[in-house]
């Protein structure tokens, strides 16, 4: 199949909110009056972000979902995406599965693929996402105030357990738990509805892609505040068999790929946030508070600070 036919067959679908989509030298879109364009890009590299044998459908889904998650974290409505993909060889079964996964995610979140680039090379998938947010209402990392409450959505550490099971580093999960965790890793959801509901309420927000401690750390640094969290309050994955506490803490505090939102808000918004969680059917948990003194501490039930190792993934750090 020629490059042109391949793009036509696998990556061309009718695009919404778009004046000109796939097929020309550039796509054309219009931003609604009063909106800002929110733009973000995330790359998935074979061997680094997924195993070579990961189902192609899941790679397609995840490559878009992780980008949509960045829109959620900004309180933006995701609308358009571009896809730049390098393929080692032409494998139509793989491409078909990949594009089905990509478009399944696009349909779920109402995103249109409007352009991209297709080339031969080591498998690499680069997606750019664009969305809209009313001017001045985006949720930023630098808005946390001292004495905000710190919140997270969902359950943390699930994707990390999925990764550990795939690596055969975790053998105590039941087969149902293993399936659930691997699904969380390979088919993440993006908290778009929550991000939209947090506009005007949250003072800061981030999506948890690299682990709670690392990602909350970005909010704290940019907002020039510190935080204290309570281990007991952090929503953890519940397993039938006992899991080593150290492993549970590492997964929950430093495990990546959950794509839940972490945000801070004034304590006066507490009840309103519980109500939003109920309405959206998304667990929202208050896990601590921010303060003027810098630094991030996680206290156990005896008020002792936990030791946090490998606080999140850093691609450029030497790993032991
Ligand atoms: P050019 O050579 O002008 O850059 P290309 O041949 O790379 O054009 O692409 C042709 C059209 O197909 C463009 O509109 C481009 O945005 C689109 N396109 C290429 N690859 C993809 C892809 N993987 N997904 C979506 N659109 C794509
Ligand atoms: Mg091109």
Give the helix tally: 9
Low-confidence runs (pLDDT<50, min 5 residues)?
A: none
Distance between the termini: 44 Å
The set of bound ligands, ions and cofactors reads: adenosine-5'-diphosphate, magnesium ion
Radius of gyration: 20 Å
Largest sheet: 6 strands, mixed
Overall geometry: globular
Q: Structural class of the secondary elements?
A: alpha+beta
**Approximate helicity band:** 25-40%
pLDDT averaged over residues: 95
Order of helices and strands: HEHEHEEEHHHEHEHEHEE
Spatial sequence of strands, sheet with the most strands: 6-8-5-9-7-10
Beta content: 15-25%
Total E-strand runs: 10
3D structure, described in words:
There is one protein chain. The longest helix is centred in the N-terminal third of the chain and has 19 residues, at 56-74. 33% of the residues lie in helices and 24% in strands. It is built from 9 helices and 10 strands. It starts with a helix and ends in a 21-residue tail after the last strand. Helix 2 packs parallel to helix 3 and helix 4 (158-166) crosses helix 5 (175-186). It has 320 residues and is an alpha+beta fold. Helix 3 (92-108) links the parallel strand 2 and strand 3 (112-120). The chain has helices spanning 3-11, 56-74, 92-108, 158-166, 175-186, 192-197, 212-223, 245-254, 270-280; strands spanning 35-45, 77-87, 112-120, 124-134, 148-153, 202-207, 226-230, 261-266, 284-291, 296-299. Strands 6-8-5-9-7-10 form a 6-stranded mixed β-sheet. A 4-stranded mixed β-sheet has the order 1-4-2-3. The structure holds adenosine-5'-diphosphate and magnesium ion (MG). Adenosine-5'-diphosphate binds at residues 7, 11, 22-25, 83, 85, 113, 115-118.
């Amino acid at each position: 199949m020629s490059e042109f036919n391949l793009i036509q067959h696998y990556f061309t679908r009718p695009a919404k909110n778009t004046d000109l989509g796939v097929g020309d030298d550039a796509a054309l879109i219009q931003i609604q009056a009063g909106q800002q364009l929110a733009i973000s890009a995330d790359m998935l590299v074979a061997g680094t972000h997924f195993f070579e044998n990961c189902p192609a459908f899941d790679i397609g889904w995840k490559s878009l979902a992780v980008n949509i998650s960045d829109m959620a974290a900004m309180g933006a409505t995701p609308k358009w995406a571009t896809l730049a993909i390098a393929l080692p060889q032409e494998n139509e079964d793989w491409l078909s599965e990949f594009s089905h996964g990509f478009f399944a995610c696009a349909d779920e979140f109402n995103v249109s693929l409007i352009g991209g680039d297709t080339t031969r090379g080591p498998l690499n998938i680069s997606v750019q996402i664009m969305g809209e947010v009313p001017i001045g209402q985006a949720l930023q990392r630098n808005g946390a105030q001292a004495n905000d409450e710190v919140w997270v959505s969902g359950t943390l550490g699930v994707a990390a357990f999925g990764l550990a099971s795939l690596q055969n580093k975790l053998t105590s999960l039941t087969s149902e738990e293993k399936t659930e965790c691997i699904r969380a890793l390979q088919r993440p959801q993006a908290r778009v509805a929550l991000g939209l509901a947090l506009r005007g309420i949250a003072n800061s927000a981030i999506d948890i892609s690299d682990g709670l401690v690392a990602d909350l750390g970005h909010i704290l640094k940019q907002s020039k505040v510190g935080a204290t969290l309570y281990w007991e309050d952090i929503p953890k994955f519940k397993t039938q068999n006992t899991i080593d506490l150290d492993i549970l803490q590492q997964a929950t505090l430093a495990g990546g790929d959950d794509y839940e939102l972490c945000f801070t808000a004034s304590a006066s918004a507490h009840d309103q946030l519980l109500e939003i969680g109920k309405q959206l059917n998304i667990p929202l948990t208050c896990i601590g508070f921010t303060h003027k003194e810098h630094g991030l501490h996680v206290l156990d039930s005896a008020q002792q600070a936990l030791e946090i190792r490998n606080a999140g993934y850093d691609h450029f750090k030497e790993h032991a």
